[in-house]
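Can anyone check this?
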Amino acid sequence: MNSTKNMTKLDVSLLGKKFRGSMLGCLAGDCIGSPYEGETMSSGDRVVLQNSYDKLEGPMYRAPVMQFSDDSAMTKSVAESLIEKKDLDLVDMAKKFVKSYYQEPHRGYGQSVVTVFKKLRGSKFTDVLLPAREQFNGQGSFGNGAAMRVTPIALFCYNNYERTIDMARQQSLLTHTHKIGIDGAILQAMAIQQSLHSHPKDEFDAREFVDDLIDKMNFVEADEEGLGLVEPQPYKKRLTLVKKLLSEKNGNKPTPDQVVHELGNDITGVGSVPTAIFCFLRAQSPIEGIRTENPLRRAIQYAVSLGGDTDTIGCMTGAIAGAFYGDEKLSPNVLQHCEGSEEFKQLADKLLDAATSVEWNSN
């Protein structure tokens, strides 16, 4: 697999907009999705979401800032480690995860990852991969926690797919050792990276975007024989469903219930990462019940409207869409209501500096 296959040289100014769009899209999706987490969204709930988003995007008003969850907290730690080390340092990253958790445990961390953090702290980080390997009787977690925080990896390795796959896999191992959890992070990273190298002003084919991901996941999932998975190559199969749903004729677009039934909206990697990719691609065109001309907002709003793990699917959708459209499509009024938006903007700029300074991104 050629590390620079299909990669394009991007203008640094454009790249900066896309880095900021991805990091801020991740944050905005998390903040906007968090209040709806675990909900089964009715038509009335979707109207409430529409009106709430309209208000956020309208004239500035004084209101409590929407807090980010563990999704953005861990994304922030990944970014800070990459910026400081200019490479993947798992010990440093693990320490940042644990420090962030103990400083702000209210962010909504799942109990399984809290157990990992407590073991890491108790062992003084002597073996940062051991606690995750011990999860779920040694089978590891297949949740979406490794995928939700992978955005900085995709940006840092923006011009090198092989590095992206390797780093996405390694950072996953700090908390997720099940192949489905790891491969979800790899798929999310590759979707963000493809968006970085795609342009709204160019002719864009959503199904070709999916085909490229299917080809890559065919490579990533090729070594699954003998792992005892209930469903071999689950991501490739879900991506095939994404393509099918996108191919529905104009008068027969899938309903939110159909999307949830086919793709999922839960905390597993396979039940959320393909959904986020679909939300980004479906939002390229108008969606019934979502009143906006802004496709980036439409993508995040649509992701949240599906219910379930809304903060994480919103976060992942925002990261992919933000990498495609850039930060100019993110409303400054909305961002002012998102906790940490200025910090995430600065992290994006620092990530760009770090990413463009490493030799393997300039090949």
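Reply from J.R.: I decoded it. Residues 1-7 have pLDDT under 50 and may be disordered.
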